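Extended Data, panel c. Modelled sequence:
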Amino acid sequence: MKTAKQAIIITNCTGRKLYSADVTLTKYSSHYRTVDDIAQAWRTALSAAPSHHIARQLYAGRAFREAEVAAAGLDGQLYVLSAGLGLVSADDTVPAYDLTVGASGATVLPALKRLGLSPKHWWSALNRSLGKPLPIASLLDSHPQAIVYLAMPSTYLAMIDDELLTLAPRDRTRLRIFSSPAWLRQAPSDFTRLVLPYDERLESTPFAGTRNDFPQRALRHFVESLQAHTLRLDEARVAVNAAMSKQVVRTLPERQKRSDDEIQALLRLHWQANEGSSSRLLRVLRDDLLVKCEQSRFKGLWRSMRDEMKSNRL
């Protein structure tokens, strides 16, 4: 077996953060005539942020934690691809912020739509404002022997695919891409062979989870179960295909819709047995009771129930 090369892991930022945002997009998205104006105003606001945190202590959620575990297994450096900060090391100090290229929350999409632009234009403008026009290319240039593992959803890969296309052919071969099958269908043809062929059969392995953390879980499987980071790219693709061929697509249970009042009644019923734990109650709701409940909706219902339980104890 070959020796693994130096590893760099790049994962996406997450909407869930452990500190309240000091900088939010709201003020900087609707009053400017160009995307560069928006990016420069955003950069100025970041510079004035009153507090900073170590990046790995800012981001929450399973996707980020899985990326951390994979990076430790590779003895590699972890970086975060952020729609608000550009490309940062997990050990950098950064402000708490709220900005996304996703469909909801503090999203820059409406401002981009107004200007007839897409997230890739925002990525370029943001990095120009930060004085780092091609941060991924620069990272590869400064680590010429490293293998770079990109583990992120299709929305983030689509945001950076123009920059990926600027990479020299020898640098592209150092990429290993972990994403949903959705990105593979829309990826530039030059990159399809760099995508490790994971699919929904991963959910039949001990690395099952949600769609949000699929890329990072696939990377962990790649490192821990297959040790495929020690292989050449073509060998690694064969290893992934072989591993997936041994699995079957898991049949997901049919979950039923329930009203907010019905869900809160179920939470009330199971609250004490699960000590009010939001993660445990969500699993009970979805896996045991087979109730449909999107995570952001559940979070609001759980908070309401928590407040109710507190007031009942007073």
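Residues 295-313 form the longest helix (19 residues). This feature is highlighted in the accompanying rendering.
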